Amino acid sequence: MSIRSTLLATACTIMTLGAAHAGGLKPIEGRSIRLGDISGVAYYTVEPAGFRVVTTLAQGEAGVPVRFVSVLAPGQRVVLSTPMEATALEISRTGDNLLIHTAKPVVN
What we know:
Keywords: Signal. The protein is mainly beta. The protein is 13% helix and 46% strand. The protein has one domain. A hairpin with a 2-residue loop joins strand 2 and strand 3.
């Protein structure tokens, strides 16, 4: 099975497990994401330390998947970007809501 098929199957499975939650992404609900020619899925679970966000990305069907895991407290965010893209992907927590949207990349 190709990586793209695996990611799609995972996203569909996760999306069917979602529980009711107000606003933004729901716990365990998968969201397809794209960052240029890199694509994947993101979801989160609620843990005592905060929202555990799991993001899995791969480039094309032959790319090796990379998983990023972060725990967000209210008001925190994580930004994913590549040096080749003019946009970035921001995952932020506001109260009990988790939002995923495009943003300007972080420049050092």
